[in-house]
Design brief:
The strands form 3 sheets. A 9-stranded mixed beta sheet has the order 5-4-6-7-1-8-13-12-11, with helices on both faces. The chain has a two-stranded antiparallel sheet with strand order 2-3. A two-stranded antiparallel ribbon has the order 9-10. It is built from 10 helices and 13 strands. It starts with a strand and ends with a strand. The longest helix is centred in the first third of the chain and has 23 residues. The protein is globular, with a radius of gyration of 20 Å. The chain folds into 2 domains: 205 residues, Peroxisomal Thiolase, Chain A, domain 1 (3-Layer(aba) Sandwich), CATH 3.40.47; 140 residues, Peroxisomal Thiolase, Chain A, domain 1. It is α+β, with helices and mostly antiparallel strands. Belongs to the thiolase-like superfamily. Chalcone/stilbene synthases family. GO terms for molecular function: acyltransferase activity, transferring groups other than amino-acyl groups. This is Type III polyketide synthase. Keywords: Transferase. InterPro entries: Chalcone/stilbene_synt_C, Chalcone/stilbene_synt_N, Polyketide_synthase_type-III, Thiolase-like.
């Protein structure tokens, strides 16, 4: 049975307190009176204390802004992608080093790169292969623009590789620089997304070796809630990537998650009492609360998810691997882990893991 044997994580050098980011947003976006009153409420309720970014602007006063300029002129798509390409390899390498402690990188047979915050060709896969001196014939796969659930999609691919070849060692790298795409907008949806997103990278090693120790991959399940298409979207524009994230998303997830879990448990011949742990993508405090309420979970069932949200914010695809790393490092983690992440579509992607 394929399994996750290790997870490594990394964040950029600039740590920003949530209240500092709020001050930046108020100054830079200059929202109307209604949203100027709303923004502090959203930040206070976010459940986030710290977020990380590849630039320092969020903790600086006007006059010391570099990436956005002192008039907060919107950087072009080209400028945003230039900084992405300058930063993404180094951050990815940090999470890979954290993941592969004790493992020779030359043993890696497959490389899967995941991102939705930067696009180029040659892409992150080739840039990393060059930087890490990986074999020229390494099998590469790129998962692009799927959003916050993409790590589970990558795990699905890695699982298939390992089932086809028990000697496979698959390295997954999820690196997201979400803060590159801050938009100077007074729109309520833009303000909502500004309270959540951050930069981070997570890498995990998946192997087919039955004797290896780690999180066993049992099964994957997914569902598309098509009625939510307008409520969560990610589009390219001349001024960067545009996020649509409405306050209807938690309600939609609450409506769908129960029936999906029932389908998962039925197919595996399990009941909800057989689920020992819950690894839920912390897309926001309201999303975690929606899952808790829909599944009638105890207040401490999502401790790892809340903790990742508090310390890092929402790092898109990398975030669920941060949650799983917390669980793997906790000696009390044992049994079935229901893992779920959400993204554009609205897509709900799940995996049942066991330790």
């Amino acid at each position: 049975m394929p399994k996750i044997v290790s997870i490594g994580t990394a964040v950029p050098r600039y740590a920003h307190k949530q209240e500092d980011i709020m001050r930046f947003m108020l100054d830079a976006a200059n929202p109307d009176e209604k949203n100027r009153k709303l923004l502090p409420i959203l930040y206070k309720r976010s459940g986030i204390e710290t977020r990380y970014s590849v630039f320092s602007d969020f903790s600086q006063l006007r006059g010391n802004w570099h990436f956005f300029g002192n008039n907060c002129t919107a950087p072009s798509l080209e400028q945003r992608m230039k900084l992405f390409n300058e930063e993404v390899v180094a951050l990815s390498e940090k999470s890979i080093q954290d993941c592969l402690q004790g493992t020779d990188i030359q043993e890696i047979t497959h490389l899967i790169t995941v991102t939705c915050t930067g696009l180029s060709a040659p892409g992150l896969d080739i840039l990393l292969a060059e930087k890490l001196n990986l074999p020229a014939n390494i099998i590469r796969t790129s998962v692009n623009f799927m959003g916050c659930y993409a790590a589970l999609h990558a795990l699905k691919i890695a699982n298939a590789f390992c089932k086809a070849d028990a000697s496979a060692k698959v390295l997954i790298v999820c690196t997201e620089l979400c803060t590159l795409h801050f938009q100077k907008s007074g729109d309520t949806d833009a303000i909502l997304s500004s309270t959540l997103f951050a930069d981070g990278s997570a890498a995990c090693l998946v192997v087919g070796d039955d004797n290896a120790k780690g999180l066993n991959i049992v099964q994957f399940f997914s569902k598309i809630a098509l009625t939510g298409q307008p409520d969560m979207a990610w589009q390219l524009s001349a001024n960067g990537f545009l996020m649509t994230l409405t306050n209807h998303v938690p309600k939609l997830i609450k409506e769908e998650i129960g029936s999906l879990l029932d389908s998962v448990l039925t197919q595996l011949g399990l009941s909800i009492t057989d689920v020992a742990h819950w690894a839920v993508h912390p897309g926001g405090k309201n999303i975690l609360e929606a899952v808790e309420n829909a599944l009638s979970l105890s207040t401490d069932a999502l401790t790892a998810s809340y903790e990742v949200l508090r310390r890092y914010g929402n790092m898109s695809s990398a975030t669920i691997l941060f949650v799983l790393k917390e669980m793997m490092q906790n000696p009390t983690t044992k049994g079935n882990i229901f893992t779920v992440a959400f993204g554009p579509g609205i897509t709900i992607e799940t995996a049942m893991l066991t330790l």
